[in-house]
Amino acid sequence: METLESLTKKTAYKATLSRSQGREGWSVIFRHPVRVDPATGKPGRRVRGGLGTTKREEAEAFVGEMNELLADASYWEPAAREIASQRFNSRIVEIFYRELVPEGHDHFAIREQHISLPGTAEGYRRALFLGTTGAGKTTLVRQILGTDQIKERFPSTSTAKTTVADLEVVIASGDYEAAVTFLPQLEVRTYVEECISAAVLSAYRKADDAELVRRLLRHVDQRFRLDYVLGSGFTDESEEVDDEPEDVDQIDAFDVRPEELGDIDLSETNQILSTAISQLREIAHSYGDKLTKELEASDQDRRVIDELFEEELDNLMRGDDLFHEIADQLMDEITKRFDLLNFGTIHRTKQGWPLSWTFTSAERRAFVRSVLQFSSNYAPYFGRLLTPLVNGLRVSGPFLPRWGSGRLSKLVLMDGEGLGHAASSAASVPTAISRRFEEVDMVVLVDSAKQPMQAAPQAVMRALVSSGNVAKLAFCFTHFDAVRGDNIPTVAARRNHVLASTDSVLPGIGEDLGPYAEAALRRRRDCACFFVGGIQKALSSEKASDRRTVDALSALLKLIESSSPAQIQGPGKPVYDRMKLGVAISAAANSFQDSWRARLGLIVKPNFVKEHWTRIKALARRIAYGWDDQYDNLTPVADLLSELQKRIFVSIQQPARWSGPEPSEADKETIYSDFADKVSRRLILTCSRRVQAERVADWQRAYNLSGVRSTFARARVIADDIYDKAAPIPDVTSLPGTDDLLDEVMSIVKQAAMDAGVSVM
After folding, report:
1. Model pLDDT, residue 543
2. CA–CA separation, 600 vs 711, rounded Å?
3. DSSP code string of 457-500
4. In-domain check, residue 566
5. If we measure between CA atoms, which residue out of 76, 70, 66 comes closest to residue 18?
6. What pLDDT shows up at residue 523?
7. Bridge partners for 631 per DSSP
8. N or C: which end of the chain has fewer CB within 10 A?
9. Helices first, then strands: H and E counts in the chain
10. Residues 595, 557 within the same domain
11. How far apart are CA 255 and CA 307, in angstroms?
12. Which helix (H) or strand (E) holds 373?
């Protein structure tokens, strides 16, 4: 094995000085001797760091220090950081060692430091609002907060994906407060580079400038909308504009004018984008034509050639300095938007990247004006917004619904990214949401009455039942005013029409999760179901439909405020057969493995399609760097959790016997849910550790693979070295104690059984 000393003799690492156009500060650029370059899979990743000075002489001295550090391999180990800090400037040390030892941040805890979320001890109830994109959950939250639909528009709403960050609202007397946390710098850069890569591919396919700008400014998963930050770039003045948009709320003027959010010259940004488009075409054709000829000369079918082309083009462009120069320019433009924050307090990481921002004001308008920059999706503000860079926004203040009694409710409202329109109701609920099931008192499932009970709402119901949290479920059907038809002339008929949609899906859930799951969901539907319409506008007590909506919203708030855990009655307790539970755990591991091997393209399985290589690589990168445990709807941790919860919950409903008088059906449901809840709380941590935390090195290895056939190699690493070890499938030759997943989950079940007062024999 080559030592660091031998490597440094082969490769001369050299730092250079750089300054982007329009920026006064100097930066250093160098190839890192240890960090892996994703284009080659070998050390030499390109790094650029701001030096924090506008003086050339000082910057040159910093670069000299960096070159000293690069020339001495003894400094290249993470453990050498303390020694390096004694010799070199702290700025140089931070730039070299950042991400070599990643600086992790708990963004929830950071927001908690500024604004604490009260709970039952303070007399508060917490409600989590879930629903598919466009169902109206954020509009519902806006109604409860009483924010003006036109002049304030907080939180922001749209028929498209709008909310991509966690929103936490504390209703409390006193001043208005806000605490915002931001995506890590490397994660933002990753999104930018993925956008550039997509734009280069479009350039090679001879897309026009408008399409290239769209690809450059809108990430494929629609979560990262760079046009919010940098503006829309080039616009086609001949493009037809609707005379009468459906959403009138989107065209009325804000009370806050765009210039109030900061003075910035978008013409400079547009010039950078224009230059970038030309450079993208240059990159595309400098590599694309040659690569096409090489691949078409190989003995491969068309589908394989297309996939290899995309992957190899991505690898080649990421090794080109021009690619990184474009990313540098865009990152500099993003950084400029943080300079607009001349109010509130901004807190930064050691590397200078914004970590959080806080603000307090007694004036409501000042508060709204402050949070718009972090939450708005209003087109006239494009070029000044930081919305896509935010991963969490927590606010506190005396919010009152306009139709309420005037009494401040002791509530914490939690909103987040809309659930995707999954193709299958078996899709897993992200672990970030599953964890919140345990922290809240009510889960409000917001669904559109126009097209109710699609796949995502069904997935939420399954997750709540199998995790033992079904008693927290409330249904809220929006767009009830839009349910029309000659066959449903009355309000009662419209309600029955919507409820019929639940009747069509509950039996399927019962078949998968057992009869008690179906019964529990029916009971929640009958006692905690609300219908609202017209919530996108101010409600009037003079209209009957508005009065019905106000009554429904008032009843929903009353239900949330009065929520409390169910009490178990009676002495009877279930006794379970350990062998049956073991079979359930084995079946969960097998189902998890099969579904993911199909997604990775290693086997063929009905209802599963092979995922595109870019999505698998994006998943590997996000887990490798600890940003998340999923990418879009690729949720390996949640998938394993879901399979285990489902199989164990079915077994929980089948006790071998009862130790005492057999309880009533209602008490059985409570006992089963309590046991499932105690199991699930432990399972979340176990699945996260086994799939993510313990396998970071393997995820990094999978991500860093490059070159011909790296797509297949990456799939093999994920399947064989990560999933096979995280969730091994027992077979007839397995000996007791040899399957660590089976042993660990059985231990969890036994501990949960003791806490729940049930027995496992």
Report:
1. 85
2. 9
3. HHHHHHHHHHTT-GGGEEEEEE-GGG---TT--SHHHHHHHHHH
4. no
5. 66
6. 93
7. 634
8. N
9. 26, 16
10. no
11. 49
12. helix 364-375
Tell me: do 548 and 586 sit in the same domain.
no
d(CA 658, CA 589): 29
Contact 460, 446 (CB under 8 A): no
**With contact defined as beta carbons under 8 Å apart, do 132 and 447 qualify?**
yes
Residue type, 177: E
Position 242 pLDDT exceeds 50: no
Of residues 695, 725, 463, 719, the one with CA closest to residue 611: 719
Percent of the residues in the chain that have a pLDDT greater than 70, as a whole number: 89
Give the pLDDT of residue 424.
52
Confidence of residue 448 (pLDDT cuts 50, 70, 90): very high
- Tokens found for residue 756: 């729940």
What's the pLDDT band for 419 if we cut at 50, 70, 90? Answer: confident
**Domain C-terminal end among 335, 370, 397:** 397
Which has the closest alpha carbon to 711: 636, 618, 627?
A: 618
Q: Name the residue with tokens 């390109």.
A: 46
- The mean of the pLDDT values for the chain is 86
Asked if residue 735 has pLDDT above 60, the reply is no
Quick one: pLDDT band at residue 7, thresholds 50, 70, 90?
very low
DSSP state of 473: E
Number of domains making up the chain: 4
Taking the complete model, does pTM exceed 0.90, yes or no?
Answer: no
Beta sheet of 574-576, edge-to-edge order: 657-658, 574-576, 759-760
Residues 151, 89 within the same domain: no
Question: What range does the domain containing 751 cover?
Answer: 574-760
Lateral strand order in the sheet of 166-171: 345-348, 354-361, 176-182, 390-397, 166-171, 411-415, 125-131, 442-448, 473-478, 529-531
- The pLDDT, as a whole number, for residue 221 is 76
Q: Residue 147: which residues within 8 A CB-CB, separation 6 or more?
A: 153, 154, 155, 368, 399
Residue 292, SS3? helix
What are the φ/ψ torsions at residue 161 (nearest 5 degrees)?
Answer: -65, 120
Instruction: Quote the DSSP letter at residue 383.
Output: T
